[in-house]
Amino acid sequence: MLDARLDLQRRRRLGMVEAIWGEHKTADQIIAILKRFEDAGELGLVTRVDPNKADMIASALPQVVVHSHARCLTMGALPTPEDGAAEVAVISGGSSDRTVVAEATLALQCHGIGVDAVMDVGVAGLHRLLDQLPRLQAARVLIVCAGMEGALPTVLTGLVPQPVIGVPVSVGYGISQGGRTALEGMLASCAPGLLVTNIDNGYGAAMAALRILRG
Questions:
Q1: For each successive 10 residues of the chain (215 residues), what is the average pLDDT?
Q2: CA–CA separation, 136 vs 116, rounded Å?
Q3: d(Cα 108, Cα 138) in Å, to the nearest integer?
Q4: 180-to-81, 119, 176, 177, 197 alpha-carbon distances in Å
Q5: Three-class SS of residue 132?
Q6: Are 122 and 176 in contact (CB under 8 A)?
Q7: pLDDT at 190
Q8: In a 3-state reduction of DSSP, which class is residue 91?
Q9: 92 near 118, Cβ under 8 Å?
């Protein structure tokens, strides 16, 4: 039985498509929800879908696109950025942050926002970040994904004037594992104006960036 109350007015009310959390839903529940989105003429976005569940859904709905790196599904054409420019840069401390980067990138693309993904510029090799600063100047908002101690967003917020949204990632040894250390480090940052989402919340960071861009 499907008891989901879909927010089909969210785009009109907030300028955002509704995202469906897929991790704790069955394939049949997600299929039913996506059919309702399709009937309403709305783009479907499902986050946190494991590969087996994604295959089941795609078999039932051939129009579904599986974004395996993001652990997401979409159904419906993604809008094209109006001017082709990347308004948001999504930055990762290391390649292990790739899934969170991909989730944030896809969520923005669902809203027609151009994204520049800048990978593997963590503070363990600070020169890698400094080399990318000219590239980052073109973006209006920066989303910074980092695990371990989560220092990268603090460093970047001290170097650039744009809004910076930190996303703690559940990557790291020992007490870093699970992302709690990165989260607390970002919340305790001395860099003024750093915004922080919950652990691994690439979608939430993307929606915060969207609000900033459209504010």
A1: 69 83 94 91 93 96 96 93 85 91 96 94 90 93 95 96 97 88 95 96 96 90
A2: 9
A3: 17
A4: 35, 22, 7, 7, 12
A5: helix
A6: no
A7: 93
A8: strand
A9: yes
| Rounded Cα–Cα distance for residues 210 and 160 (Å) | 19
pLDDT at 83: 74
Q: Which residue has the tokens 């309702």?
A: 36
The four Cα atoms 125, 209, 195, 133 give a dihedral, to 10 degrees, of 30
pTM of this structure = 0.91
Q: How many residues does the chain have?
A: 215
Domain boundaries in the chain?
10-75, 86-214
Q: What is the DSSP string of 24-78?
A: TS-HHHHHHHHHHHHHTT--EEEES--HHHHHHHHHH-TTEEEEGGGTEEEESPP
What radius of gyration, in Å, describes the C-alpha atoms of the chain?
A: 17
In this structure, which amino acid lies at residue 11? R
Residue among 52, 59, 46 at smallest CA distance from 20? 46
Q: What is the pLDDT of residue 3?
A: 66
Distance from C-alpha of 2 to C-alpha of 11, rounded to nearest angstrom: 22
Q: Look at the alpha carbons of 101, 164, 20, 62 in this order and tell me if their dihedral is positive or negative.
A: negative
Closest to 105 (Cα-Cα) out of 154, 54, 58, 139 = 139
User: What order of strands is seen across the sheet that includes strand 19-21?
Assistant: 19-21, 44-47, 72-75, 64-67
Q: Which class is domain 86-214? A: alpha beta
Cα 111 versus chain centre, distance? 12
DSSP letters, 133-150, are: HHHHTT-SEEEEEE-TT-
Which amino acid type is present at position 182? Answer: A
